[in-house]
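Archive entry: two folds, one per protein. Generate the first.
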Amino acid sequence: MRTWAKEHGLLLANAGLFLAFFVGMILSGAAAYSEEQAAHGQPGVTVLEYLSSGNFVEATFENWESEFLQMAMYVILTVFLFQKGSSESKPVGKAAPQDQDPRDATISQATPWPVKRGGLVLRLYEHSLSILLLLLFVASFSLHAAGGTSAYNEEQQTHGQPTVTLFQYLATSRFWFESFQNWQSEFLAVAVLVGASVYLREKGSPESKPVAEPHYETGA
């Protein structure tokens, strides 16, 4: 068990942090939402009631949407684009293991099944990481829109204003402001990491070049 935990520690730590912060978000979100309700003369909500509210769905998926967009675009852009000296880039002008054609690989028992199968299955498997991330982005984008529509209509009704459909909400500045304010921060963080890893180091991290490696050396 200890060996398994050590081998999967990075995933387990991040999953644990996600759950801890997600629970914190739910509890604080329910409290904040109840305060807003009270300010408008409406009854507060329980945590379970909050989980079914448009406010919760919107707040959750507008953030997930930006994360999956960032990771999908990062995976795709690093296929074609380079940053000399960055640990986040493939070597410039050199062959990289990631570019090797799996059809030329020596098949062994440990070879992934799609590589053994070939054909369309392999074609999909070659791009399965970006496909998954893009699908998660589309799903989160859709749920952000649905939750946002519900929350927006609830506010409209509170102020005696007409409600909108999902497609009408997609045309509002509020929806796109929520999206762009998250998207821009994600790509800023990536740009900082890509640029900073040229000159700065973190000993022991695979996201950093070796501490003594020259700045101009690009990550493998």
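Generate the second and append.
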Amino acid sequence: MIPLRSSERVYSRTVVTGTLIAINVVIFLYTRYLATLSYDAVNQFVKSWGIVPDDLHLITLLTSMFLHGGWLHLLGNMLFLWVFGRNLEDLIGGTRFLIFYLLCGVAAAGVQVLANPHSPVPTIGASGAIAGVMGAYLVKFPRSQIDTLVLLIIFFTRVTIPAPFYLLLWFGMQFLNGFESIGDRNYTGGGVAWFAHIGGFIAGMLLIRLFPARQRWRHWYDEP
């Protein structure tokens, strides 16, 4: 299910969300196309700035969330950030949204490291931070609807799905896949960072309570 847009209006310019997307795209283009890096150099770049649990450097808890492994990884994350991030930034303000986003990313990375502390595989991507945004969206916009592109057998169709159903279904899939990976004897920590998604989502639901709505939107937000 691919989210296309939220039913909630955006009342202000969401500069931080757009800037985060731009930074992620620029860094991806730099590592893939603009830098004179060999394949080995790119791998070393990812190992240096991504999270490697068995050789952890604290700075990578931040830098890893601005690296992506491919176009699908990047575009998928940026789409989710655009759909869910703009309303949250509009509600709490750009500066607080940036702080919230980074805190969720660090929390998500920490959970992933705790879940697989001896993995030699680098963990990269913004999905943990974005999962935090999604968790916060569930708390703050429980009556929202998500315009969604759904694959039905061999063709796509657009449907409107209540945000709680969409987000809880997404979280349930991360939860099941995460704990299924624990039982996989051959699992080495590669692939999708399920526990980063789980940790980020829960962190977002909890941390958003520390970031109240902006004063000028409180009357609108508190209306029944």
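Annotation attached to the second fold: The chain has one domain: 2-184+191-213. The chain has a mean pLDDT of 88.
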